Amino acid sequence: MSKPPLASDTAMVLAAGLGKRMRPLTASQPKPLVRVAGRALIDHALDRLADAGVAKAVVNVHYLADALEAHVTARRAPEVKISDERANLLETGGGMAKALPLLPDPFFALNSDNIWLDGPKNAFADLSAAWDPDTMDALLLLVPHARAFNFNGPGDFHMDALGRLTRRQPARIAPFIYSGIQLVSHRLMRDAPDGAFSTNILWNRAIAEGRLYGRAFTGLWFEVGTPQAIGPTEEALGRG
Fewer CB within 10 A of the end CB, N or C, for the chain? Predict the structure, then answer.
C-alpha cells in the first residue's frame, strides 16, 4: 500500500542560531553539529525528513556557517539548499521570510536542536493528514508533558476541540509544548517585518484570526538544548 501524500515536499530546517545554551560544546562548532547518540543533531532531523519522504530541505546558516554548510550539502537525501544568513542573523521568523522564495506553499519548518521518536504516524504524515489550507495559517506539532523529555517549563499552548490554539496564561500551566515542528502556509508569512524577528509575531496574528492550529504528537520528544540534556537523551534512546 502506498503512503498518503505529504502536504509538502520541502522543509526549512532552522539552524542559524548561536547555540549559547549549548556552550562550551559550541565554542568551536555550530550547535547543529553537536553529536547525540552518534549523529549530529541536524542529521537526526534530516534523517527523519528523508525517512518521511520529504525530498528537499532548506537550511539557514550563520554561526560557523562554512562547517555547517559543508556538512549538510554532502548529504544525498534530502536535497539541501542553503539560505545564507552570514551577514545578519534573522531569528526564526526572519529566517523563514528570507528563505521564502525557496519554499513552496505550504512547507514544513523544524528546529535542528531536538530529537523525536515517531508514534503510529511519522510527524510529517501526521501534520499532512490534519492540514486544511482553507482554515489554517500554520499547524504546530505539540507534545503533552508526559511525552516530553528534558523539558521542565510550564508549556506553551492550550488547544480547543477543533485544534485551535491559544497561548498559556501568566502563572498557569499549559498542557502542550511546541515541538519545534510545524507546517506553514505562505499566508502566515504575509506582510512579514523586515530584518530579524520571531515567528511568535506571526503566530500571535494567526491566533487572533483563529488560524493557528495544533496537532498532538503521539511519539516521544527530546529537548536537547544544553550539554546536560545529551546524556539522558542518549540513555533514553538506548545508545550513546
Answer: N
Q: Give the other-Cβ count within 10 Å of 231's Cβ.
A: 12
The DSSP H or E segment spanning 43 is: helix 41-52
- Residue 240, pLDDT above cutoff 50: no
Cβ contact 93:14 at 8 Å: no
**183 - beta bridge partners?**
108, 139
What are the residue boundaries of the structural domains of the chain, listed by start?
10-237
What CATH number belongs to 10-237?
A: 3.90.550.10
Pairing of strands 220-223, 114-117: antiparallel
**pTM for this entry:** 0.95
Residue written as cell 565554542? 27
**CA 188, CA 207: separation in Å to the nearest integer?**
11
Query: Is the four-CA dihedral 22, 115, 149, 215 of positive or negative sign?
Result: positive
Q: What is the pLDDT of residues 98-134, one digit of tens each?
A: 999 999 999 999 999 889 999 998 999 999 999 999 9
